[in-house]
Design a protein that fits this description.
This protein has 127 residues and is mainly α. The protein has a domain at 49-119. It contains four helices and no strands. It has helices at residues 27-34, 48-73, 76-86, 94-119. It is elongated and about 110 Å long.
Length: 127
């Protein structure tokens, strides 16, 4: 078997596809004749609900998220009552929680004041 190398220049350049004479001259008119007439559509009217619908859905989504957070996390007062109850402190209302923390804030402030004032070597001044 003999190997013959073909070169690109040796191949005959023949175009197998041919168009009829004057084909492209009348092509545009033929296509335009076959198309249906253009129908002008009137613009769609959008009512108020269709305009507000995305905003209403977004507000409902955020309300749902807030409700889920409140259900699963609870309010701070409820969680505080549970925390204090677990430590053995009986608290029945949010106002009692405020009183409890006010008492301990005042007590802590007095302890810090006494610690800094008396540790510096000052004596209590009485008037």
């Amino acid at each position: 078997m003999s190997k013959k190398t073909l070169k690109l220049n040796d191949l005959v350049k023949v175009d197998p596809f041919k168009t009829p004479e004057g084909y492209f001259e009348g092509l545009t008119n033929d296509i335009m004749r076959q198309l249906p007439d253009r129908v002008v559509e009137s613009p769609k009217t959008i009512n108020l609900w269709q305009q507000m619908q995305p905003w209403v859905y977004m507000a409902a989504m955020f309300a749902g998220i807030a409700l889920m957070v409140k259900i699963f996390v609870g309010t701070p007062q409820q969680s505080m009552i549970k925390t204090l109850a677990s430590e053995g402190i009986e608290v029945n209302s949010p106002s009692e929680i405020e009183e409890f923390y006010d008492y301990y804030d005042n007590r802590l402030a007095k302890l810090v004041y006494d610690d800094t004032f008396y540790s510096a070597g000052y004596s209590e001044i009485s008037y």
